[in-house]
Specification:
By secondary structure, this protein is α+β, with helices and mostly antiparallel strands. The chain folds into two domains: about 100 residues, Peroxidase, domain 1 (Orthogonal Bundle); about 70 residues, no CATH class. The chain has a four-stranded mixed sheet. Strand 1, helix 7 and strand 2 form a beta-alpha-beta unit.
């Protein structure tokens, strides 16, 4: 993807500055907000990538949309505008989140369930993540009714399948090679 290396470098510099100013967590929240907003707004993305829109308008629009930004985040926006790289703002935000999570040993857990997670299920999954990896995690929930019940947890290359469909598949595999059952 175009701009990924530059986004990594900007994110690293922003994280370093945020750590020095003890505002890494506040900037992390800002970056989550920026990433979500830019990805969900095609108009905002078009405005940021447009060569016709002046940088002053881009800056005032961003500061109007994101009113409570930390000073480090505002400075990052200014640097991106000054260097003509504002179109990679959402990539910088995403890279910042990744680097912040790595720094704090926070992993991304993808949980597939048949129904959306409620608070009780979410806390149970977080406990399972802590048990399996020994680290904290953020949860991304994917709803897939085909798993019937239970959940499938993916953290990096680790997968824990506690779904009903997974149990049925394992049972089917076991019964397939059973000489007594295959005669029925």
């Amino acid at each position: 993807m175009k701009g990924t290396r530059a986004a990594q470098r900007y994110a690293k510099a922003i994280l370093s500055l945020a750590k020095d100013k003890n505002s890494a967590e506040a900037v992390h929240e800002d970056m989550h907000s920026i990433s979500r907003t830019v990805l969900n707004s095609r108009d905002l993305e078009n405005m940021l990538t447009s060569p016709v829109v002046k940088n002053s308008i881009k800056r005032s629009a961003l500061l109007e949309i994101f009113k409570d930004l930390d000073g480090v985040t505002k400075g990052a926006i200014d640097i991106l505008l000054e260097n003509g790289r504002i179109e990679i703002l959402h990539l910088v935000a995403r890279q910042y989140i990744i680097q912040y999570n790595e720094m704090n040993n926070i992993r991304q857990a993808v949980v597939t369930t048949a129904v959306p997670l409620d608070k009780e299920l979410e806390s149970a999954v977080l406990l399972k993540v802590k048990e399996l990896t020994g680290s904290k995690a953020t949860i991304k929930n994917i709803v897939d009714e085909d798993i019937i019940g239970g959940f499938i947890l993916r953290i990096g290359d680790l997968q824990y399948d506690a779904s009903v469909s997974g149990d049925l598949t394992r049972l089917k595999r076991e019964l397939k090679d059973n000489t007594y059952v295959s005669k029925i």
